Amino acid sequence: GENVEQHPSTLSVQEGDSAVIKCTYSDSASNYFPWYKQELGKGPQLIIDIRSNVGEKKDQRIAVTLNKTAKHFSLHITETQPEDSAVYFCAASINTGNQFYFGTGTSLTVIP
Amino acid sequence: GAVVSQHPSWVICKSGTSVKIECRSLDFQATTMFWYRQFPKQSLMLMATSNEGSKATYEQGVEKDKFLINHASLTLSTLTVTSAHPEDSSFYICSAGGGGGYTDTQYFGPGTRLTVL
Predict the structure, then answer these.
(1) Residues B72-109: pLDDT tens digits?
(2) In a mutagenesis test of the A interface, which of B9, B59, B108, B115 is the best target, namely the one with the most A β-carbons within 10 Å?
(3) What is the count of residue pairs from A and B with beta carbons less than 8 Å apart?
(4) Taking a C-beta distance cutoff of 8 angstroms, is the pair A96, B105 a contact?
(5) What's phi and psi for B84, nearest 5 deg?
(6) B2-22 pLDDT, tens per residue?
């Protein structure tokens, strides 16, 4: 089955700096890659996603890039703010209606 | 937008009792819902796939007699933890979606914190 690896496990940045989280996947059939933000005691919230027919997608301060050949995708957060502090999970799946395989999570801390 | 709710948000029970957790898709129909379990500071672990009108598909190592799943309608799936024990204490999260259109992704519920004394 699919194996998703995520790095780093923890990340601290100064407010205003950029943060980058990277994930790799093993199954070349995976074609949907969402990113979730999870705050303490809450369920994951979708922040951005990308499909395999696109190499990059941006939504304001958040962007995701996908390299199908290398089987890796990354989350980029620019101009970080303290409210960006949370745990971020990447995931991979074959279409959106099937099982999501999650990375191990990255705890992001934005220092004011 | 698509909303998935869970009830209750938290529950505390005595060892040996059964607890039912509901997962509802509020503004869309979901033929498939997923149940996850999450331990502190860990990732989401898929427990089972809930299919409307048929039996759930359980992941390896998940006891189907312990974690009963019922998907009675296109908007409701329930997870019952039977004869709960302290080791069942965890954060349980459901997801639904993937049906195309604006729900062409999965949306997650807010989670249910189960504490077994």
Answers:
(1) 888 999 999 999 999 999 999 999 975 655 457 888 99
(2) B108
(3) 53
(4) yes
(5) -65, 145
(6) 889 999 999 999 999 999 999
Look up residue B59 and give its DSSP letter.
P
Residue A10: closest CA among chain B residues belongs to which residue?
Answer: B41
- Please give the structure tokens belonging to residue B54: 């048929």
* DSSP notation for A21-50: EEEEE--TT--EEEEEEE-TTS--EEEEEE
Contact B43 A36 (CB under 8 A): no
Dist. CA A85–CA A109, nearest whole Å: 5
Residue whose structure tokens are 């949907």: A32
Cross-chain CB nearest to A105 (options B32, B43, B106): B43
What's the CA gap between A57 and A54, in Å, rounded? 7
Nearest chain A alpha carbon to B94: A43
CA distance readout (Å), A44 to A34, A47, B25: 11, 9, 15
Residue A40 exposure: Cα atoms within 13 Å on the Cβ side: 5
Q: Which two tokens stand for residue A108?
A: 């992001």
Cβ contacts of B43 on chain A, cutoff 8 Å: 89, 102-105
Residue B101: per-residue pLDDT: 55
Most B CBs within 10 Å, among A10, A35, A96, to test the B interface: A96
